[in-house]
Amino acid sequence: MKLPAVFLFVLVALMHGAFAAESEAVKVTTKPAEEQTVPRYLRVTGQLKGSREAHVAADASGKVVEALVERGSVVKAGDVLLKLDNSSALLSLREAEASVASAQLKLDLASDELKRNEPLASSKAISGVDYSRFKNDKAGAEASLAASAARRDIAKKAVDDATIRAPFAGTVAERLTDLGEYVRQDSQVVHLVALEKLHLWLNVPETSAGAVKEGQQVTFNVPAFPRDVFTGAVKFIGASVRESARDLIVEAEVANADGKLKPGMFAEARITLGGALAITVPAEALKVEGSNRKVMVVHDGHIEERLVETGETTEHGVEIRRGVNKGEAVVITPAAEAVDGVKVTLAN
């Protein structure tokens, strides 16, 4: 049976194209897979906390008459946070100061009496009993003055405590009382957090606890700033593993001069454990198709498509844990034409 001329023409064209495609080589650029030192990380999660954080107590009783800070206020150590009504404390202080003045006068009088009678005691003009009485009077006056001074200092402290000050530099996370409220000595009035330095509390699994050392670098991300990478260093390592979670709490110190990070933020972190030799290829050599990772390798003048297992990504390339050997030529460009089985020539 004869085929129509048009079908013969199409068939010949297809066979010619297939032959040409089979014989025409694709020019590609390659680079050898190299063995380099690749960092090893321990991936953990954690939470940011203030390096210094306190619910400041009143340490005095009274009604709030001034509230000088609000949520978000930045304060220095010693800055006034709140003031309490100190009128009663001032009256007590005036009374205590008057007692001190009275006790001082009695001491001066007793000292003068003793000084006048010292020559008489030396010449035996007065009895030893009388002279001892003068000395005892002076000692009693000194003790009375000391007691009055102590009561004055207590009254002065009560006046000072009516002005509640920041114990350290930080930011007011929350003000817990308001004007007109009555607070006691144990009342919490302000939640204060130091933000210049934070601590990242990391949950390290028990099985990896032995790999963590003080000073190791920590890099982490927070959901609020997904594109930013923050750094810190391991500062404190917990003394025991928590029985409930079978993990160890490790604290990393994190600089936060711009106040961008906030206590309470969740973090995904990597603790740098060191480095190990591994095979790496340039990042552009890796093809990602869904969950598959592929690399095109030139072997005997043809492309071999390899499924690979990747590891860490560094500035030098991508770690290949399985699929490519050291020294094998991996295709960099062109990626589209480099498919499995294609004949190639090297542009480089």
Spatial gap, N to C terminus: 52 Å
By CATH, the superfamily of the largest domain comes out as Efflux pump adaptor protein, beta barrel domain
**Broad structural category:** alpha+beta
Instruction: Give the DSSP E fraction (strand runs of 2 or more residues).
Output: 35-45%
Low-confidence runs: 5-23
Mean pLDDT, all residues: 88
Helix content: 25-40%
> Can you count the beta strands?
22
Overall CATH class of the largest domain: Mainly Beta
Please state the second-level CATH architecture of the largest domain: Beta Barrel
Number of domains: 4
Number of helices: 3
Q: H/E order of the elements?
A: HEEEEEEHHEEEEEEEEEEEEEEEE
Largest sheet: 6 strands, antiparallel, barrel
Radius of gyration over C-alpha positions, nearest whole angstrom: 41 Å
Q: Can you list the strand order of the major beta sheet?
A: 2-11-14-13-12-15
CATH topology of the largest domain: Elongation Factor Tu (Ef-tu), domain 3
Silhouette: elongated
Topology:
Blueprint: H1 5-23, E1 26-32, E2 34-50, E3 53-57, E4 62-67, E5 74-75, E6 80-84, H2 87-122, H3 128-161, E7 163-165, E8 170-175, E9 182-183, E10 188-193, E11 197-205, E12 217-222, E13 225-237, E14 247-255, E15 266-281, E16 286-289, E17 292-299, E18 302-307, E19 309-314, E20 317-322, E21 329-333, E22 344-346
Parallel strand pairs: 1-22
Antiparallel strand pairs: 1-21, 2-11, 2-15, 3-10, 4-6, 4-9, 5-8, 6-7, 8-10, 11-14, 12-13, 12-15, 13-14, 15-20, 16-17, 17-18, 19-20
